[in-house]
Amino acid sequence: MGHYSQHLNTEIQLTRINMSILDIVQEPDPVLRKKCDEVPAVDDELKKLMNNMLETMYNAPGIGLAAPQIGISKRVIVIDISRDGENKNPLFIVNPKIIWKSEELNAREEGCLSLPGHYAEVIRPAKCKLEYLDYNGKQQIIEADDLLSTCIQHEVDHCDGILFIDYLSKLKKDMIIKKLIKAKKEKEIL
Ligand SMILES: [Zn+2]
């Protein structure tokens, strides 16, 4: 996972103050199905949003979170695939653009904070190149493989209103959505 760690040093120095944990939107919800807007500038307000998203993701816990998952239709993502016990290694991604995908494919089991309790194997390009603005609004390009590549593609999909269940058979997808609707109804009753 050395491809992307070099430029993160300044980002890790963040003072983690005044962060809040936000509610995570669950499927089905129209905000998860909207194409998100590009961000015009990385300003203090956006940094605050990214800090809160990171805190929300760590708290869940998850390894990636996109803004529509907290009800905000903007092209903003946070990712941290570091393992328990390792130093945190957050990646802040604004206006992501996948500029290259490998022909080689990779199957990996995916889950999603917006589809709690559901997991399925998804086949995606094994590697990708991502162009984006970082926490300081600086343009970056990274090449990712393995888990990071999967995570990036999963989160960029969120910015386009796509969920991992969209890659499954209709039967399997419908079954998961039915269960999520049932779980939401049960929550309302309680
Ligand atoms: Zn997700």
What is this structure's SSE topology?
Elements: H1 9-12, H2 44-59, E1 64-66, E2 76-79, E3 91-101, E4 105-110, E5 120-125, E6 128-133, E7 139-144, H3 146-159, H4 170-189
Antiparallel strand pairs: 1-2, 2-3, 3-6, 4-5, 6-7
The structure holds zinc ion.
Residues 112-114, 154, 158 line the site of zinc ion.
Describe the model.
This protein has 190 residues and is α+β, with helices and mostly antiparallel strands. It has a single domain, classed as Peptide Deformylase (Alpha-Beta Complex). The chain is built from four helices and seven strands. A hairpin with a 5-residue loop joins strand 6 (128-133) and strand 7.
| Basic shape | globular
Q: Which CATH first-tier class would you pick? A: Alpha Beta
- Superfamily at the CATH H level? Peptide deformylase
Give the SSE string: HHEEEEEEEHH
Strand order of the largest sheet: 1-2-3-6-7
Radius of gyration (Å): 16 Å
Stretches where pLDDT is under 50 for at least 5 consecutive residues are 1-14
By DSSP, the count of extended strands is: 7
Estimated share of beta-strand residues? 15-25%
Query: DSSP helix count?
Result: 4
For this structure, the CATH topology is: Peptide Deformylase
**Alpha carbon gap, first and last residue:** 43 Å
Query: What ligands can be seen in this structure?
Result: zinc ion
The profile of the biggest β sheet is: 5 strands, antiparallel
Mean pLDDT score: 91
How many structural domains? 1
